[in-house]
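Methods — Computational structure assignment.
A single polypeptide chain was analysed. Its primary sequence is given first, followed by the predicted tertiary structure written as structure tokens.
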Amino acid sequence: MNADKVLDAKGLACPMPIVKTRKEMKEMESGQVLEILATDKGAKADLVAWAKSGGHELLDSQENGDVFSFWIKKG
């Protein structure tokens, strides 16, 4: 999936992946896609809830070994 920007949040514990995602999304235009890479197992539930509450759309998520990838479209 194509992303306008990639955020590497691997190795960061909750809530840092969300904090960094929020910061990146503020700098992006509506409709752009941010790819987030994380290793924190709690990131999945956190990012899904954060995207929904912020009016963003979680386009996809994948798990590849220890790394979780998320694609969020800015609302």
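Note: The longest strand covers residues 57-64.
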